[in-house]
């Protein structure tokens, strides 16, 4: 890949992506204050699908053959489907900063699943990253002042967020195949539409018990933020950045998402990590950084 044509614009897009996604965990908690789980997720994806339609992404429905459509339905089942169910319910039991750090382990889990399911060999750096991230997650979970061994409270929330991580990781492994024949914008658009369809039935089940008058302005603004910025804006910014820089360089910015979440949660929700959790978070970020390093770079360093 050659030099960037617009370095300032590219790095601005990466910073915007980091902020949009980083604050999404905080915005979800704010939205959940007065909006039930499935209503929130359905509203987010329905509005996002409409925005994509208006932006022209969906003027022409992507041409998928029958086999690709089956794959897309399965992909949508993992993400947004199961991923957002696990994440949204999990956030009701655990803190936003901890959620962001557990979600940050997705690249590490993808490595593990690739080795188990696809027979891909994990390098030395990947194994170090896997061990570090596991240690970091343990510190994050047991360092929570509300931690207990019963399946409720913060432990239940952490396990649900773990379910979100596995769902997203399986999605990434299965998406590799579709990515060879379709652009990321086509896949994302279809995903968002399928996501809205997927969450329609749970939303209709939730509607009779929904108290519309109790939905606050604060929660409504959070839904608008989640739709316009965390879903559509982040996707557009990240896709633009990926057209200018390699994935490995863009990944460094994605690693900053938990930092944005920690600052946002502290300012807006008064949620903080304990010293032990902060140490665990540092281990997780180090693990993700190590697993993102190009394999050749480590080989060069080890021969010095």
Structure described in brief:
With 304 residues, the chain is an all-alpha fold. The protein contains 15 helices and no strands.
Question: How does this structure look, described?
Answer:
The chain has 304 residues and is mainly alpha-helical. It has 15 helices and no strands. The radius of gyration is 19 Å and the shape is globular.
Sum up the structure in keywords.
single chain, mainly alpha, 15 helices, globular, disordered C terminus
Mean pLDDT: 83
N-to-C order of helices and strands: HHHHHHHHHHHHHHH
**SS strand fraction:** under 5%
**Span from first to last CA?**
27 Å
Question: Would you tell me the structural class of the helices and strands?
Answer: mainly alpha
The percentage helix is over 70%
Question: What's the total number of strands?
Answer: 0
H/I helix tally = 15
Low-confidence stretches: 297-304
Q: Biggest sheet, in brief?
A: none
The best one-word shape is: globular
Using the CA coordinates, give the radius of gyration: 19 Å
Write the layout of secondary structure elements.
Elements: H1 7-22, H2 24-31, H3 37-55, H4 66-90, H5 96-103, H6 106-117, H7 124-142, H8 153-178, H9 184-198, H10 200-206, H11 217-242, H12 247-254, H13 257-268, H14 275-292, H15 295-302
Helix pairs in contact: 1-11, 1-13, 2-11, 3-9, 3-11, 4-8, 4-9, 5-8, 5-13, 6-7, 6-8, 7-14
């Amino acid at each position: 890949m050659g030099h960037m044509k617009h370095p300032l614009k590219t790095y601005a897009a990466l910073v915007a992506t980091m902020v949009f996604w980083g604050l999404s965990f905080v915005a979800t908690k704010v939205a959940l204050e007065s909006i039930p789980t499935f209503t929130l997720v359905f509203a987010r994806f329905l509005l996002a699908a409409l925005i994509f339609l208006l932006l022209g992404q969906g003027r022409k429905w992507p041409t998928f053959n029958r086999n690709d459509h089956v794959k897309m339905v399965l992909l949508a089942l993992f993400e947004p489907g199961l991923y957002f169910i696990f994440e949204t319910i999990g956030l009701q039991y655990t803190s936003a900063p901890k959620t962001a750090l557990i979600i940050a382990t997705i690249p590490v889990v993808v490595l593990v699943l690739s080795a188990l399911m696809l027979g891909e060999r994990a390098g030395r750096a990947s194994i170090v990253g896997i061990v570090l991230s596991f240690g970091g997650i343990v510190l994050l979970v047991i360092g929570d002042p509300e931690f207990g061994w019963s399946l409720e409270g913060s432990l239940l929330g952490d396990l649900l967020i773990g379910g979100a991580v596995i769902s997203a990781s399986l999605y990434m492994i299965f998406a590799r195949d579709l990515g060879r024949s379709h652009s990321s914008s086509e896949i994302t658009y279809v995903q968002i539409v399928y996501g809205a369809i997927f969450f329609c039935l749970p939303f209709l089940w939730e509607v009779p018990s929904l108290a519309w008058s109790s939905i606050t302005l604060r929660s409504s603004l959070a839904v608008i933020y989640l739709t316009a910025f965390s879903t559509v804006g982040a996707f557009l910014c990240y896709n633009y950045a990926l057209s200018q820089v390699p994935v490995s360089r863009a990944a460094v910015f994605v690693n900053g998402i938990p930092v944005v979440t920690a600052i946002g949660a502290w300012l807006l929700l008064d949620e903080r990590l304990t010293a032990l959790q902060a140490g665990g978070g540092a281990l997780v970020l180090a693990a993700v950084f190590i697993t993102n390093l190009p394999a050749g770079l480590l080989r060069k360093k080890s021969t010095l």
